[in-house]
TrEMBL record:
It comes from the Bacteria. Pfam families: LacI (PF00356), Peripla_BP_3 (PF13377). The lineage of its organism: Bacteria, Bacillati, Actinomycetota, Actinomycetes, Kitasatosporales. Residues 7-61 form the HTH lacI-type domain. It comes from Streptomyces jeddahensis. The keyword Cell inner membrane does not apply. This is Ribose operon repressor. Gene3D superfamilies: 3.40.50.2300, lambda repressor-like DNA-binding domains. Keywords: DNA-binding, Transcription, Transcription regulation. CDD domains: HTH_LacI, PBP1_LacI_sugar_binding-like.
Length: 338
């Protein structure tokens, strides 16, 4: 008996015949559970004598002095996109002032989502910073249901209920397009990010608003959807050249995709900026070292990281703290590509 392993949320879920998310909700008093499921979970908890880690520790302070920074993306995207490293730097610097540990968590599949759910339910972290938010990702809603302080870099949509921080994506995109129009460009296309992300939809909206106000065309043939990768930018640029071969400028929703777009333009023997001007978004190190150097919309990514960290600490230290929505300004940085 003394060598028996202590039961876990996974064990309880298997005994009750439900998912780990349901067990977590029951433990945390969520109402989003049927009475039948609740009864099955409580019976399994009693039968297995399951005790959550947080309870076993006695909840002396109810704090672990650690928070999780969760990125629901692959390692390749994490490694190739400067945005993520800048957010991590900003958050880490802000938390270092308080001696709060930062745990980096990648959530790439259902198994890793379950592991995160179990960690959250057992209060192994005091809060969560969620980066790269997709519209239908269940994670934000799950974290909200579990009652854990959570702050987003980005948002699911304009009615986001959780505290969140993002750049002025619509305004930044509009400024980029106005710049291209001011340089005499008449047919400005765009490469968007994945449209299940508010950041991509907002930058598309800015492109469309600037063209509409100038009386310029903003038809579907001028829009290609990318995936925030270099390869995706190249594929999208190829599609644009097929559907709108007379385009003379393109606004690209990220610097990484812009590099892919410029490679494709060179393959098509289009000179940059003589034949096609290019503007990116982020003003990452990539923009300064691309060829030609890339005009880009600068967003304060490290400040996003530090701001989400400070807001999360506020919510951890004060359960009554109001949820906030912070928009940080952007700035167009003009270089040779436009």
């Amino acid at each position: 008996m003394g060598g028996r392993q202590r039961p876990t949320i996974k064990t309880v879920a298997a005994r009750a015949g439900v998912g780990r998310t349901t067990v977590s909700r029951v433990i945390n008093g969520s109402e989003l559970v049927s009475e039948k499921a609740r009864a099955a979970v409580l019976a399994a908890i009693a039968e297995l004598q399951y005790v959550p880690n947080s309870v076993a520790r006695g909840l002396v302070t109810s704090k672990t002095n650690s928070v999780a920074l969760v990125i629901p993306e692959s390692e390749s995207r994490l490694g190739s996109e400067p945005y993520f490293s800048a957010v991590i730097r900003g958050a880490s610097a802000a938390l270092a002032e308080t001696r709060t540990q930062l745990q980096l968590v990648l959530v790439r599949d259902q198994q890793e989502r379950d592991q995160l759910t179990e960690s959250v339910a057992e209060r192994r972290v005091d809060g969560v910073l969620l980066v790269s938010v997709h519209e239908h990702d269940p994670l934000p809603g799950l974290l909200e249901d579990l009652g854990l302080p959570t702050v987003l870099a980005g948002r699911r949509g304009p009615r986001e209920s959780l505290t969140h921080v993002h750049s002025d994506n619509t305004g930044g995109a509009a400024a980029a397009v106005r710049h291209l129009l001011s340089r005499g460009r008449s047919k400005v296309a765009t490469i968007t990010g994945p449209l299940d992300m508010d950041v991509a939809r907002s930058r598309l909206q800015g492109w469309r608003e600037a063209l509409t106000e100038a009386g310029r065309p903003a038809g579907d043939e001028l829009v290609a959807t990318g995936d925030f990768t270099e390869e995706g930018g190249g594929i999208a640029m190829r599609s644009l050249l097929e559907h709108a071969p007379d385009l003379d400028a393109v606004f690209v929703a990220s610097d990484v995709m812009a590099v892919g777009a410029m490679l494709e333009l060179r393959r098509a023997r289009r000179r940059i900026p003589d034949d096609v001007a290019v503007v990116g978004f982020d003003d990452s190190i990539i923009a300064r070292h691309s060829y030609p150097p890339l005009t880009s919309v600068r967003q304060p990514v490290e400040e996003i990281g530090s701001t989400i960290a400070h807001l999360l600490l506020e919510e951890i230290n004060d359960s009554e703290a109001p949820r906030r929505h912070v928009v940080l300004p952007t700035q167009l940085v003009v270089r040779e590509s436009s």
